[in-house]
């Protein structure tokens, strides 16, 4: 007997029929047909991440009547063997669900002995969450929501009363095609579970996010929601009296998986940095706990700046990828200003013949605010006439001609 429990959410971008067929095949392999002698049942299933269009891997799954905790694999699959018959219910736990502030579980279902139960559960889609969280119309596609939690990095507990601020600039075209800049701000305060929610954020404009906890601020981060209108992130801010430090370790590679040596890696906000070794490994000690921005740079590669959560306990090495940069030269702009007035009186045309002396504004400025006679006296063929007094000049070709 194969009782099919209700599906908790309709997954998107994944074929339900194909998924059920794969689960049934998986169940038949693990539960042979000659199991009639057994008195226990088995429960198989999968968890779909409809928010991102994939499977929810690494989720903890529990079932009533058992202390066993199953972990979903890369395809979101889980299984329980030796399940006692009766009314059962499956629950799913994952950091994504905690950040969204939602619980995920199956409806109660009955399973008998010597039987197999097959379930499919799913995280709600982005549009469903957007309607539920922000009361957004179905056709709205220009705004999104940012959700998450503020936690204490030393204790791992949620922080209530933290302020999370989001700032961006809208560009408005007014009458007469005038472009106005309209600064926008959304502020969210965390509740008792440490959760914050900011609705109405633009999906195609960078947004600056800043969080505070009793005078202690997290690094200023730039986010962009993008195509998935529901974005999730957690922020760790330590208390004002915390003196805990952690270690950031990792390996830096390029997009082909080749180690990058001699790259700068650092948390510049606290002045801690190191260079990657020949195998791309690096280690940063003495980093204050909480969310920090890890910066990586090397000539020939695109700089990286990623948020990292630093805890007091050493964590495993994280793989970071830096892509090679394609050098793009800045635009070369050639600008020429034509003096219409000089061209109109023939100055420009006569200057091009190179016959005579031509004084430009720059030439006159070099004389240091001179009189007109001093300017004319600098021209070849003219000189001051001291016999006539100051302000008179004469031609060197004809001494009788005085101006």
Give a quick summary of the entry.
This protein has 403 residues and is mainly beta. It has 7 helices and 28 strands.
Description:
- 13% of the residues lie in helices and 37% in strands.
- The protein is mainly beta and 403 residues long.
- The protein has four domains: 16-124, Immunoglobulin-like (Sandwich); 137-236, Immunoglobulin-like, CATH 2.60.40.10; 245-321, Immunoglobulin-like (Sandwich), CATH 2.60.40; 340-395, no CATH class.
- The radius of gyration is 36 Å and the shape is elongated.
* Beta-strand proportion: 35-45%
CATH class of the largest domain: Mainly Beta
Strand tally: 28
CATH topology of the largest domain: Immunoglobulin-like
Low-pLDDT segments:
1-13, 33-37
Mean pLDDT: 81
What Rg, in angstroms, do the CA atoms define?
36 Å
Query: What characteristic shape results from the CA principal axes?
Result: elongated
Termini separation: 121 Å
CATH homologous superfamily identity of the largest domain? Immunoglobulins
The chain-level structural class is: mainly beta
Secondary structure tally, helices: 7
Biggest β-sheet strands, sense, barrel: 5 strands, antiparallel
Please give the share of residues in helix: 10-25%
Number of domains: 4
CATH architecture of the largest domain: Sandwich
């Amino acid at each position: 007997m194969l009782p099919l429990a209700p599906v908790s959410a309709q997954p998107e971008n994944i074929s339900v029929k194909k998924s059920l067929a794969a689960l049934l095949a998986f169940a038949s392999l693990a539960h042979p047909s000659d199991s009639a002698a057994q008195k226990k049942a088995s429960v198989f299933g999968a968890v779909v991440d409809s928010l991102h269009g994939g499977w929810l891997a690494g989720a903890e799954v529990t079932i009533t009547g058992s202390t066993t905790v199953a972990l979903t694999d890369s395809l979101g699959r889980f299984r329980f063997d030796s399940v006692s018959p009766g009314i059962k219910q499956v629950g799913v736990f994952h950091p994504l669900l905690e950040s969204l502030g939602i619980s995920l579980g199956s409806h109660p279902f009955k399973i008998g002995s010597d039987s197999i139960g097959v379930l499919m559960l799913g995280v709600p889609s982005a549009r469903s969450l957007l309607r539920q969280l922000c009361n957004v119309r179905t056709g709205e596609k220009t705004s999104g929501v940012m959700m998450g939690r503020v936690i204490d990095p030393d204790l791992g507990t949620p922080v209530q009363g933290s302020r999370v601020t989001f700032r961006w600039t809208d560009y408005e075209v007014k009458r007469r095609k005038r472009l106005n800049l309209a600064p926008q701000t959304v502020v969210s305060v965390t509740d008792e579970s440490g959760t914050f929610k900011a609705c109405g954020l633009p999906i195609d404009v960078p947004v600056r996010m800043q969080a505070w906890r009793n005078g202690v601020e997290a690094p200023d981060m730039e986010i962009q929601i993008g195509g998935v209108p529901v974005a999730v992130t957690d922020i760790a801010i330590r208390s004002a009296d915390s003196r805990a430090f952690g270690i950031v370790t990792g390996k830096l590679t390029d997009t082909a998986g080749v180690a990058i040596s001699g790259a700068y890696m650092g948390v510049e906000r606290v002045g801690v940095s190191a260079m990657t070794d020949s195998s791309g490994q690096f280690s940063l000690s003495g980093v204050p706990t909480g969310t920090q921005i890890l910066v990586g740079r090397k000539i020939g590669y695109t700089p990286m700046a990623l948020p990292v959560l630093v805890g007091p306990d050493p964590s495993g090495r994280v793989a970071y990828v830096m892509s090679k940069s394609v050098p793009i030269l800045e635009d070369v702009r050639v600008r020429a200003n034509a003096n219409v007035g000089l061209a109109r009186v023939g100055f420009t045309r006569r200057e091009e013949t190179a016959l005579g002396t031509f004084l430009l504004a720059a030439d006159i400025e070099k004389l240091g605010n001179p009189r007109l006679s001093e300017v004319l006296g600098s021209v070849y063929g003219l000189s001051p006439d001291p016999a006539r007094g100051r302000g008179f000049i004469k031609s060197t070709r004809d001494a009788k001609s005085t101006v």
